[in-house]
Each structure stands twice: as structure tokens, then as C-alpha cells.
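Quick start: what a row looks like.
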Amino acid sequence: MTRPRKKLKAALPEPQSFTGFGPKALQFFHDLAMNQNREWFQQHQDVYENEVQRPMAALVTELAEELARRGLPLTGDPKRSMFRIHRDVRFSSDKSPYKTHAGAVLTQDGSKKSPGLLYIHVSPEGSFTASGFYCPGPEQLSALRRAIASEPDRFQDVEKALQKARLTLNRDDTLKRLPRGFEDVPAGPIAEILKLRSLYVQRDLSEAALSRARLVKDVADFAQEALPLLRFGWKAISQPAGSLDRH
């Protein structure tokens, strides 16, 4: 009896020097959205690998090196940082097999599950880089909220530092009312922050920016400007639940 052969995972391409994403990168994703099938993807896989995957691997590698050079506590590598192009359709009504964007994330320990991130998103619908705490779990979100409510002045200093860099917290996902346990927080800026389900900032990346080698510096600059938010959040999440007294 012949044993079935195991399906081998495709190896990530070796990182090259980052010179920018290829001129066909965004068009590839635009076309992929119209051709969500394996046959089309296989016929155009070389475009994906050369115009998207290899440049992203190079960007992650050089960005991790640049962040380390600056002493910023964020790291990653192509294997851990880059998201697969294949969608997980097991629990989705949308059975489209492929994502129509590329993404990568750098964190304190390089794993995707580590709280507090730097994210790069490449898409024909809009590319950007983001940093902060996106959709944190209930315990982490509660810790962030406790720290903000307990030390409003310190968090406002964080916001001032962000505003100086022309960054503001994203407010796309917010509660209508204050979360349970924070109902006594008076109306005002801090109360509005406590309603947020995520705490992050982002900066758009133009198509021209994606094509340049200096994207490494641009994203590293953004990470440095967003660092006050990450440091505040990391400290909050590391605190024992009862160590912050809001009263």
C-alpha cells in the first residue's frame, strides 16, 4: 500500500534588498479580486512572488534591522511576520480563497500574538502602516482601560506626543456607552477613549511611497512616533489587575 504524499509548504522566498514593491503589485491584487480561483492564481503566482512576496520579505528584514539600530523594541522576520495570502474560510460565508492585500506585523517578540504591534498593509484599496493595540482580548482591553482611567494625565501626554507627529487614535470602532465598570468616569475626552475597542494610530502610504526604498525609513519613523502609545499599553498590560486604583 502506497502512503499518501504529504503536501509540502511553499518556502518563503529569500529576502533581497528592499527597493520597493513592484509596479504590478497593486494591479495583481485588483485582478485577483476578479479571479478568485486556483487556476488563475497559479498562472500569475510568479507576479505575486516577485512583485509582492519578495519585496515584503525584504521590507520586514530591513525594517527589523532599522528598528533594532534605533533601539525600538519591535522585531520580526519573513517567516513569522508575513500573513499568508490564503484566507481561512472555515467559518466564513465568503468562500473566496485568496486575500486581496498583503500584510506583515512586527511585535516585541516577533510573534503575531504578542500585544502591541507595528503593521504594514498593502492593498489597491488603500495602503497604510499602523501601530498600537488592535482588537485586544478582553483582559488586555480591560487593563488598557484601567490604566487610562487611573492615569488620565499620563495618557493625555501620550496623546499630545502623538498629535505632535500628526497622529490621532483611530475611532472607527467605538461603543455607544461607557464599558461596564467605567460608568462613573465623567464625560469628556478620557470617557470617549474608554469607549474604543482598539487603541491604535495609522498613516496612509501612497502608491509612490510603496515603490521607494526609503519606505523602510518611513515606516521606522512612524514606529518611533507611535512608540509612546505602545509603551503606555505594554506597561498597562504588564500590571497586575488590582494594582491600579481608579478611585
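That is the whole record. DSSP finds nine helices and four strands in the chain. The longest helix spans residues 45-70.
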